[in-house]
Amino acid sequence: MNRTEFIIVTAIILFVAFSLGWFANWLVHRFTRVKQSDVADLDRMSQELHAAEETRDQAINYLQQRESELVNQLTQTDAELRAAMDGLRDARREAEELRSHLGR
Q1: pTM tops 0.85
Q2: Alpha-carbon dihedral of residues 13, 18, 23, 28, nearest 10 degrees?
Q3: How far apart are alpha carbons 58 and 80 in whole angstroms?
């Protein structure tokens, strides 16, 4: 085999390798191509996810607001209870003083 034949055989081998690589690349891209319906499904799912996140945020805000209202109501009820207990204690003491005064 002389020099010219060697160059031609090497060129043919390189061309065949290039052709096989290009064909393999084409096959991979052909089978992994994203279909339009898949893109539409992904778009729909992303919109639904966004709506669900907004609903979740609204629910969290509502629960925080409601919790704040309930804590305020509990604080007011607790203060009213303390005031009532203080009034009852004073009334009992006054009644006891009146009983002791009448007993004398």
Answers
A1: no
A2: 130
A3: 33
